[in-house]
Amino acid sequence: MAVWVVFESMHGNTEKIAQAVGKALGAKVKVTRVAEASSSQIKGVDLLVVGSPTYGGKQTPGVLAFLNSIPAGALKGVRVAAFDTRITWRFLRLFGFAAEKTLAALVAKGGTRAGEPRGFFVRGSNGPLADGEIEKAAAWAKGL
């Protein structure tokens, strides 16, 4: 199974989660920063996982641009999943999180949902990751 993990990371936290997800998913995994990703690289991918920090209740501009660049229907036959990194402040739930919006965008482009969107917690707005989040990311990935 060909797996592609695309991510954007502002403070290194989302990158750590992306690497943990990639490692848990096996040998045929490509982990790519969104700035180096092109929607033309989707061809032949069986599972596409996209990760972003949550900023203002949504994905980063880079992840949003990547999602918008995927042609309609291009993900037909591709399983898709999404994750984000987020802080724990309760009032932020009012704005939502990146993972849910990312997964909805991937499904709208024709992808088949491979699992629930997942958020991983950071301490403070810049991190580091909360204890155990790397292990939670690996467990989530194995369930995809």
Structure description:
The protein is α/β, with parallel strands linked by helices. The protein has a single domain, classed as Rossmann fold (3-Layer(aba) Sandwich), CATH 3.40.50. It contains four helices and six strands. Strands 1, 2, 3, 4, 5 and 6 form a six-stranded parallel beta sheet that branches. Helix 3 links the parallel strand 4 and strand 5. The protein is globular, with a radius of gyration of 14 Å.
Here the CATH topology equals Rossmann fold
Largest sheet: 6 strands, parallel
Based on secondary structure, the structural category is alpha/beta
Residue runs with pLDDT of under 50 for 5 or more positions: none
> What's the CATH superfamily, by name?
Flavodoxin domain
User: What is the averaged pLDDT score?
Assistant: 94
Radius of gyration: 14 Å
Count of alpha and pi helical runs: 4
Relative helix content: 25-40%
Q: Which oligomerization state do the chains in this entry correspond to?
A: single chain
What number of structural domains do the residues give?
A: 1
The count of DSSP E runs of length 2 or more, i.e. the number of strands, is 6
Main CATH class? Alpha Beta
Our measurement of the CA-to-CA distance between the termini, rounded to an integer number of angstroms, reads: 12 Å
CATH architecture annotation: 3-Layer(aba) Sandwich
Brief description of this entry?
This protein is α/β, with parallel strands linked by helices and 144 residues long. The chain has 4 helices and 6 strands.
